[in-house]
User: What shape does this take?
Amino acid sequence: MNKVKIRKIGAQRILSGSPVIEPLDFAKKVERTEGTIVSLFDQANQFVAKGYIGAESKHAGWILTKDQTEEIDTDFFVRVFKRAKGNRQAFELNEDTNAYRFLNAEGDGLGGLTIDNYAGFYVFSWYNEGIYKWKDTIIEAFTKSVPDFKGIYQKIRFSMEEKPEDFVTGKKAETPLIIKENGIKYAVYLNEGQMTGIFLDQRNVRRKIMEEYAVGKTFLNTFSYTGAFSVAAAMAGATQTTSVDLANRSLERTTEQFEVNGLDPADHFIRVMDVFDYFNYAKRHKMTFDVVVLDPPTFARSKKKTFSVEKDYVKLIEEAIQVTEKDGVIIASTNSWKLKSETFESFIEEAFHNQNARYEIEEQFSLPEDFRTNPYYSYGDYLKVMFIRKLS
Ligand code: SAH
Assistant: This one.
């Protein structure tokens, strides 16, 4: 057993619920070998918790249990997975949705690993080398806990020289794999880089758009990626959608999303271009929209410039205001854990002030139920989405 002494402040933080081990928690310099299980003791030699070493962001590792007698073995991970499964029963029973997050890292008691279920194919994302060292045990525990899985894929989210294959075991998924969400089909690719084609954390936002913000509306979707918001809007009765993304692949992927739902892509616009160029184009042609979606990445580098949420979001909202109809709606989203809700709201206020316009925030969304968060780890609660009505 690796017994490690930690400082009082770390012990207090962990005892009160924090799921993370910080480098400063260690009372003395300890050798941090990825994947090592450590038993943490306070200065009075009282047991605090067991965790594993895994460097991720600025963290040193994650807590696994506060029970000194609990061994970290296959059975431990089986318990974690059974608990995660129990918490997703509503999804298992839902016939309209078969893609959801099965395990959300520290929100489900296992920092460093997320698992998404795409129609029976499970995608494991390993966020540090320490947890990845436990891969064989974890996969064994998973196959025991979810015996009806079709196949397992993986993404390595830490730096590694030669990354292993995405496919791990079971059956291979069709390409594309068609999943269902809120009754809509989406084409996903489990074997192509870090992203699969859909961001599952926006499920409730897509549903809200379908239920209340699409019928009979014109819909501009910026940073549209594979056009998931556009397809949801079109399926719910938007008269026309426009999807704008800089990436070349967005054209064929968005076209495909329309096609798999039996929609004619020719009825919709798909523009491969910088969103700021698109806003200029729309303004020049005096185009306006009933609904405008802003869903930028936290940081992006394009040929001409860099975009960052902190530096550019106000400008982005200002652009959106100028092409949104009176009584129209701007749906502004960010997945930056650094950007606090209050700051995001102040961006909105500043942008409307600068444009001499009035607004009302009508709906707010954060992560959906399956993206369980840990109340003592606020960074995990990253998603903020505002539905903003432009009043004048
Ligand atoms: N809204 C999407 C996800 C957006 S991911 C969805 O719901 O699925 C971010 C996207 O922004 C990427 O596809 C990237 O190509 C695009 N992007 C980044 N910078 C851009 C820019 N300046 N103009 C247009 N698209 C950009």
Observations:
- Residues 309-323 form the longest helix (15 residues).
- The chain has three domains: 2-65, 74-181, 199-390.
- The pocket of S-adenosyl-L-homocysteine is lined by residues 199, 202, 223-226, 228-229, 244-247, 250, 274-275, 295, 297, 300, 302, 307 (CB under 6 Å).
